Amino acid sequence: MTSTVFLQRIADLYDEFKQHDARQSDRLRRYRNIEAESAKLLGMLVRTQHSQHILEIGTSTGYSTLWLAEAAKSVSAKVQTLEINAFRSAQAKKYAEEFDLEAYIDFWVGDAADYLTESVEQFDLILLDAERGSYVSYWHDLKRLLKPTGGTLIIDNVISHTAEVKPLLELIKQDENFMSTILPVGAGLCMVVVK
What does UniProt give as the signal peptide span (predicted)? Predict the structure, then answer.
């Protein structure tokens, strides 16, 4: 069960991240973390599915990573998180240590495309929350890495950045092996599962 201490600490961290983003005029300087309700839903999915292998594409400063790891702890699972920016990944690792969740997270720094191409592990849950221009190029590997039974892909920002994610959503709709739906939570989540 999510502890009251975790909920308070994560709420404070979320406020800190939001204040930081509000001060930045350059989009790339913002942390651009997932919305609080979306992060909570991810934690719930890990618990209900008993996800053992979790992949996060786009760590940023680790807000969603902490939610995933806190849920992973409750089901004895592990989170693999990918981030291209080494400084951001280091920040996320520091927060994971502060929350005493670092044992449940493997941090990987580099281009997600490289990781996805080389990985052979299959995942129960994949969160895609990175640079949206790369999403279409990820699709082939995402399909391969998603566990065929019960695997779930969650894509963030499908309502807030509709035009940017539309090419990927169209690819998914055309693929007869998958079904998807849009969840009006946070900035909009698309949930994708194998048929």
Answer: none
H or E element at residue 12: helix 4-22
- Read off the pLDDT of residues 26-43 as tens digits, 9 standing for 90 and up: 887 888 899 999 999 999
Domains of the chain and CATH, by start:
32-194 (3.40.50.150)
pTM: 0.95
- 105/79 Cα distance (integer angstroms): 5
Q: What is the pLDDT of residues 84-123, one digit of tens each?
A: 999 999 999 999 999 999 999 999 999 999 999 999 999 9
Total length of the chain: 195
Grouping H, G, I as helix, E, B as strand and the rest as coil, residue 30 is coil
Q: Which residues pair with 191 in a beta bridge?
A: 154, 181
Q: How far apart are CA 183 and CA 181, in angstroms?
A: 6
Q: Which residues fall within 8 angstroms of residue 3, CB to CB, at 6 or more apart?
A: none
